[in-house]
Fold this sequence. Notes:
By secondary structure, chain A is mainly alpha-helical. Chain A is about 85% helix and about 0% strand. Chain B is built from 6 helices and no strands.
Amino acid sequence: xxxxxxxxxxxxxxxxxxxxxxxxxxxxxxxxxxxxxxxxxxxxxxxxxxxxxxxxxxxxxxxxxxxxxxxxxxxxxxxxxxxxxxxxxxxxxxxxxxxxxxxxxxxxxxxxxxxxxxxxxxxxxxxxxxxxxxxxxxxxxxxxxxxxxxxxxxxxxxxxxxxxxxxxxxxxxxxxxxxxxxxxxxxxxxxxxxxxxxxxxxxxxxxxxxxxxxxxxxxxxxxxxxxxxxxx
Amino acid sequence: xxxxxxxxxxxxxxxxxxxxxxxxxxxxxxxxxxxxxxxxxxxxxxxxxxxxxxxxxxxxxxxxxxxxxxxxxxxxxxxxxxxxxxxxxxxxxxxxxxxxxxxxxxxxxxxxxxxxxxxxxxxxxxxxxxxxx
Lengths: 232, 133
C-alpha cells in the first residue's frame, strides 16, 4: 500500500493528538477502566476514518512508525526488569512457578472454552496470545498466521477485564500480599493490569511489571510451538 | 562498549534521546536478523528484550541514554497500541460471530487465572519462610 507522505504526517499527528486528549480525559476520570485511552482513542479514530472515507489498511500503512515504536518499547522493558533483578533473584522460584502454572491454566481454560464454543482459528490464536503484553502478542500472532488486529483487541480487552475485576477478586479471596497481587495482575492482565497495580501499591506495580515481562518471555518461547502442534 | 562510553559524555537531553533510540534500533535490527537467520519461533521484540537484559547484567548499570529513552517509551506504550486496535473495524465479520464467545472465554480464564496465581504465590512464599526459620 503506497502511503502518501503528506497524509502519513497528518494521520500520525491526528493519532498522537487524539491520544493526548483521551489520556487527559482518562486521568480526569480517575483512571476509570472503561475510559482507557486505547479504547477511547481507537473509537474516535474509527469515527474519523469513517467520516473521511479512509480505509483501515491505508491508516495502518500511514501509522507504521507508531507500530515500530511498540517494538522499541518492548525491548526497553528490559530496563525496569534489570532494576528489579535483586528482588527477582530472591523470589525467583516461587514467582516463576506460580507465574507459569497460572499462565498454563489461563491458556488451557481459554482454549477449552473457545474451542467448545467453536470459535474461528483466528479467535483461538488471539485467545492463546491474550495474556501477553500486546507487542509480543502481535509478534506471536504474526508468526502463527493469525489476525494482528483481532489479537490486539482481545489482548486489550483482557487487560481491561483484569484491571476492572482483578482488585475485586483479590479482595474477595482475601489476598492482601502486595507481591502476590502484583504478580497476578501483571501475569494475567499485562500492561493495563500493571498500570492498575501501581495504583494499589508501588510494590504491586513493580512486581506486576516484572511479571508482565517474564510472562511475555516465557510465553513467546513456548506458545508458537504449541500453536503449531495444535494445528490452528 | 560504545553506548556506555557515549553516555558518560555531557550530552544534552535531545542527543541522549537520539543515542538511546539508536541503541534500541540496533538491538531491534539485531534481533530481527537473528530471528530471520535462525527461524527461531520467538517474536523479535521479545528476543531484543532478552538481549538487552543480558547486556545490562554484563554492564551492571543502565546507560543514561537508555534511561532517557525508556521513560517516554514505557510511559506512553498505550499510544503505540492504537494503530493495531483501530484494526477492530477491519474484522467486523469475526466480531459479530465470535464476540460473545471471546468475551466468555476471556472473563473466565482471566478471573480464574488471576486468583489461582495470587493464591499459589502466597502459599509458596509461606512454605519458603517456614523452611527458612
